[in-house]
Amino acid sequence: MNHKQNFKLLATTLAVITLAGCANLKPEALQDAAIVQQAKTVKEQQASAVEPISGPLTLEEAIARAIKYNAERQVRILEEAMAYGTMDLANFDMLPKLMANAGYRNRDSDLLTNLRAGPNSPIIPGSTISSARQATTTDLSFTWSLLDFGQSYYAAKQSGDRVLIATERRRKALHNLVQDVRTAYWRVVAAEKLGQSIRDTMSEAELALKSSESAEASAMRSPLEPLRFQRQLLENLRMLELVEHELSSARVELSTLAALPAGSSFTVVEPQAQINTKWLDMNPADMELQAVVNNPDMRESLYNARIARDEAKKAIVKMFPGVSFSYGARTTNDEYIVNQRWNEVGAQLSFNLLGVMSAPTAKRLADMGISMADQRQVATQMAVISQVHIARLNYANAAKQYMRADKIAKVDGRMAEVVTARAKAESQSRQESVAQQTASILSALRRYQALSNAQAAASRLQATLGLEPAVQAAQSMPLPEVVQAVQKSLKTWEAAELPKLPAGLSW
Length: 507
Description:
The protein has helices spanning 3-23, 32-49, 59-69, 71-92, 146-218, 224-248, 250-257, 284-294, 296-318, 355-424, 430-464, 479-494, and strands spanning 97-106, 111-115, 126-131, 134-145, 322-332, 341-350. The chain is an alpha+beta fold.
């Protein structure tokens, strides 16, 4: 068997092996044990990464823990980091290409060239060897295309704008996270403050219900009166159970947001309830200007408009002829080549003649992209300005509702104290005592709900204005420093202070 046959056999064998390998590729489902092991690993990593709670959990610490440890926030941070990496790669695409090549070839026969004698030619007809059977080659080549540079330049600018978009999306996610933490925290406060009262009232209602059922069985009274009494007690128990159920998930929700281990035992500190009405006295035009400058959705729409314009410029650049320059230093050990080391310099001009036909369509498409981006920016601006006024009105309404609910809760609380005192003196029925205590608990719950709604409305107004806790590199900061930064931001908010904008900006 000659060398040629050996080569064919080798190529055929490699092809068969490759095809067989591709044919054996099948989807491999995850095993239950592997899933459980992965989940255990994630759980252990999360537990080791999160600093344990050393005391009562304050609102500032809950927000700080969410900023530092929340899994969804980590995803946004990684998305921003990936956008930075993509931008760096896009910047490298603008550089010229410097290629280093090395090769080896082996022929099983000589490369023969037929020679023919032409008119008045001293060349003798025949065949000559023009290349060695074995040879190695090396070369270092430098190429630079003006067309590729132009397209890479605008692609790099687009990548930079996408980094800024990722930053704005991270800011928006932070706004939503702070809002969710504040709402969940006040629900936990309500659960802790009302939990014992709910349990005590439910126990008293159960005792009164059993007493009423005994009275009905003994037929000491008219059957209708005990049944009415039981109906009212059961209705009170139903409302108390609904309240207990509503508040039962608050602790789990807060634990998830603050990246605390599931089932964590902690207590919260009720912050001093502050409904700052100074924001309602602020000039709406100043709030609009603040939102136009700092709102994440507004800024993202402007970056998308810039990306659309750069896309149009890329389409225009593609219409130009391609101009490229090259330089190469090459070597070979082919004994039949006289000059085994040489340099090459070249220039090339290329133009896609058929591309002229698609140029108008590409230009129209790019212009449509610009128009659509501009229209989206207009729509976003109108929506942001509307959100400022809606958030302001919602905050005003929520503040009013909280003040009303606070007064009602205080009145119901005093009434419950009076009724309880009378019940102890046996001058008041147990039914009325349970009913009034239930009403007091519901009023207190509505107060906390109104306060939570007011805090959520404040967070929405804050998010619409583009304001968030000024915390940089929270992942590398100790938790106490993050808590201090959150405290400072919340104090600034309570003081109704807007960040100073550059001089000369007006609306």
